[in-house]
Design goal:
The complex is a heterodimer.
Chain A (H helix, E strand, L loop, with lengths): L2 E12 L2 E12 L3 E5 L6 H7 L8 E6 L2 E2 L7 H5 L2 E4 L11 H11 L5 H14 L15 H13 L5 E5 L7 H16 L3 E5 L3 H7 L2 E6 L2 E6 L1 H6 L4 H10 L1
Parallel strand pairs in A: 3-8, 3-9, 6-7, 7-8
Antiparallel strand pairs in A: 1-2, 1-4, 4-5, 9-10
Chain B lengths: L1 H6 L1 H4 L1 H32 L5 H16 L2 H11 L2 H4 L5 H27 L2 H9 L4 H31 L11 H12 L2 H30 L2
Classes of the chains: A alpha/beta, B mainly alpha.
Amino acid sequence: MYNMISVKDLHKYFGDLEVLKGIDAEIKEQEVVCVIGPSGSGKSTFLRCLNLLEEVTYGSVTIDGEELTDRNTNINELRTKVGMVFQHFNLFPHKSVLENITLAPQKVKGLSAQEARDVALPLLDKVGLSDKADAYPQSLSGGQKQRVAIARALAMSPKVMLFDEPTSALDPELVGDVLQVMKDLAQEGMTMVVVTHEMGFAKEVGDRVIFMDEGIIQEEGDPEQIFDNPQNPRTQSFLSKIL
Amino acid sequence: MIEALMESAYIKSLPFLWEGLQVTIAITALGLLFGTIIGAMAGLGKLSKSKIIRGIWTVYVEIIRGTPILAQALFIYFGISEDLIGINLDAFTTGVIAIAINAGAYIAEIVRGAVYSIDKGQHEAGRSLGLSKRQTMRYIIWPQAFKRMIPPLGNQFVISLKDTSILSVIAVHDLVYKGKQYYNATVEVFETLVMVCLLYLCITIPLAIILRRLERKLDV
């Protein structure tokens, strides 16, 4: 199948600190890839390089055939193809749930208020929050906020969705609803890259698991292979600590 | 009794002081209008990526915040001579400029601080949706930062209003200047100064109440 994301020899420095030490990865259309690893392993940085929230020091990232790291690429336009969901939701607190979702379609894609509404309402329904359209983020639970954030990203009709530890800031009882929405999305064929500590989700929904440590991909493969029969000692040690 | 009150030194000073109050209000309003514009420019300038722009505004803010407004007013009025800039600034114009430049420096810090205080994640969320830097600033950062600016801005407005009293030394006919003139002529020093202070309070107290209401309404 078509390569939606292609990463070649990606290096990232923060000052003198090399956080990513040469990542090569290819993610196919409709594939769900879960990235796991200890904190400080560079997995979030890797994800953030995929929509250039972090500047790439060296190497190339190509999304849907367009090279992100090329200076001539219109980064704002390319970002509309890559939805991102953050650990801390980052909803706009001064805007209602509906306005959170309709802002970018109106300002970036030039949709009218009515058109943007027609995009947003089915998405809110999809994440199970139709009744919250006029609510403000502060009145929502963490799980609801994250589902709004997913709807907000989907409103730009992205080709890829990036999730940066989407359930890490949630109370345990709220995790399920968010994972269910992500699972539905995966089943609809969305290409997804998910940095997560939810090993159950990685096992059940992931097509492939990437284990990162010390700025490189240490091991990757089918979830069964990684979880049941890890080859790399680092993977073995990491999994033994968390499972 | 009412007749006695009307005849009292307190009330008799009012028509004279009223002229000064009008000047005080006019200078405050104009000074703050320009001061807010300067402050917004300087505050955003200090957040600029360009070192030069940042440097210029930082020098401005530090010079103004590090020197007394009295020295600044004297400098503008007496220090900058007519031959230097080709126009003769009258006391009123000098007053407006002094208040604008002085308030501008403090407002710059208010603007910068408020924008800076908005969580980085807000910017990232905007950019990740494809909004440009400018759009993110306009639709996401600025509205949130603006709310946070209101309490310190209100504070600065009150300070600038009171700072105008310093302009009496360059013969701006403000409330304090008029008060001095009045008690020099009538020798009713105590009564006159009580009225001067009351007139300041007539503005600052309602201003404080309005600001508190606004804060509550905006839920800051």
